[in-house]
Amino acid sequence: MTDDIEAKTEQLTRDPTSLVFLELGEALRRRGRLEAAVRVALTGVERHPDLLDAHDLYARVLADVGDFARARETWAGVLARDPRHLGALKGLGFLYYWAGDLDSALDHLEDALATDPTDQSVVQALMTVRAAAQEEPAQDTSDTEEPDPVFAGLDGAERGILLVDDRGRILGGRLQSLAGTDVSDRAAAYLAGATQEAERTARLLELGTWQSIVAEGQGGNIHVSAPTQTSLLLIVRDRGVPAGRLSMLAQRAAHAARRWLEGQQL
Amino acid sequence: MSERFLRALERITRVGGVRGAMLVTADDGLIIADASMEDVRGHAVAALASSLAKRFIRVSKAATLGSPQFLHLQAEHGTLVIVTAMNGVLVVTMGGSEMNVGLARLEMLRVAEVVV
């Protein structure tokens, strides 16, 4: 494989306009050499702006480095120009699956299968997503814990989602350590100050309204956002969950929080 | 020493959308090296980044997740990204909303290795 990468690199060096960058970028990302893959893909996009496969390659690398928002944007741009682009349909199907939006994942993967019925990776992905879609209601009903009033039905509502008010008082959700200890109170105490810190930073640096803070720790990743002006939402997931997916989960939780808070005011 | 750090930081500033990159002491927010555009208020960025990092280290530890190695504040018109190096140094990058965070992060991690 390394020889293959070297050979393709030499070929691209000899002829920078060669389309071999598509194979080289893919080989690099499969080897986990993401930094090099980003450079190859970006250069390819710059040299061949009308080549949709170049954008597709770039989006795949972006997804690998966890920049899911930009990957989604890039694939959406490809589909706007070619609604039957297989790579973009598969890529968006993958992103929606990880975001928990199984219906949209199925839509894109079914379109991908219609584009190329022989693609086994699409067949396999469709089977996985359909199985997940069938299991989803069963998981909800099998949960023996009392459903959380704010986040009932959301993945991790009983252990990795916390909603606090601007004084750090817990409004909903629960946070557990890896050992299963409830750490909601401790985390909530620091969160009240965190929102002020974020507001101050964004204001003084003239960045406008702050939208989210992601912190990637040794034991897991945190996503913090403000569903309303007087509340703060903390989502915690293990490191295996990419930042992009965490962000999408946070959007769903924020929507649930706003709906619940509005209900409390009625 | 500073020249070496500046060269390392310039790799970050070449990423699209980045307006400034700097090395900052984690404890007190002092600038070690700064490669920012003229209109970026370096000392304010350094102080605020250090303060934000300290706050989120507390939140992360309270959630028993350990110290965060990467922090990303996303705002309406821009973004602030912080990578914690091993020796009490923060690599701080600020940019517009168009900043390529994935690529900037890769370069910041390289810089974090250089300053150890």
Question: Key terms for this structure?
Answer:
heterodimer; A: 266 residues; alpha+beta; Serine Threonine Protein Phosphatase 5, Tetratricopeptide repeat; Beta-Lactamase; 2 domains; 5-stranded antiparallel beta sheet; 10 helices; 12% strand; globular; B: 116 residues; 3 helices; 5 strands
What is the level 1 CATH name of the largest domain in chain A?
Answer: Mainly Alpha
Run of helices and strands of chain A: HHHHHHHHEEHEEEH
Portion of residues in beta strands of chain A equals 5-15%
- Helix content estimate of chain B: 40-55%
Largest sheet of chain A: 5 strands, antiparallel
Task: Write down how many β-strands of chain B occur, each being a DSSP E stretch of 2 or more residues.
Answer: 5
- Which pair of chains has the greatest number of interface residues, and how are they split between the two chains? A-B, 50 and 39 residues
> What best-fitting shape of chain B do the alpha-carbon axes yield?
globular
* Number of helical segments with 4 or more residues of chain B: 3
On the 0-100 scale, what is the average pLDDT of chain B?
90
What is the CATH architecture annotation of chain B? 2-Layer Sandwich
3D architecture notes:
The complex is a heterodimer of chains A (266) and B (116). Chain A starts with a helix and ends with a helix. Chain A is globular, with a radius of gyration of 22 Å. In chain A, strands 2-1-5-4-3 form a five-stranded antiparallel beta sheet, sandwiched between helices. In chain A, helix 1 packs antiparallel against helix 2, helix 2 runs parallel beside helix 4 (52-64) and helix 5 packs antiparallel against helix 6. Chain A has helices spanning 2-14, 20-30, 34-47, 52-64, 68-81, 86-99, 102-115, 120-142, 184-204, 243-265; strands spanning 160-165, 170-175, 210-217, 221-225, 231-237. In chain A, strand 3 (210-217) and strand 4 (221-225) form a beta hairpin. Chain A is of the alpha+beta class and 266 residues long. Chain A has two domains: 2-135, Tetratricopeptide repeat domain (Serine Threonine Protein Phosphatase 5, Tetratricopeptide repeat, Alpha Horseshoe); 160-265, Beta-Lactamase, CATH 3.30.450. Chain B has 116 residues and is of the alpha+beta class. Chain B has one domain (2-115): Dynein light chain 2a, cytoplasmic (Beta-Lactamase), CATH 3.30.450.30. Chain B has three helices and five strands, in the order αββαβββα. In chain B, strands 2-1-5-4-3 form a five-stranded antiparallel beta sheet, with helices on both faces. In chain B, helix 1 (2-13) runs antiparallel to helix 3 (101-115). The chains are: A alpha+beta (266), B alpha+beta (116). Chain A binds chain B through residues 34-35, 38, 42, 62, 65-67, 70, 175, 177-179, 181, 183, 186-187, 189-191, 193-194, 197-198, 200-202, 204-222, 224, 234, 236, 243, and chain B through 41, 44-45, 48-49, 51-52, 55-56, 58-60, 62-80, 94, 100-103, 105-106, 110.
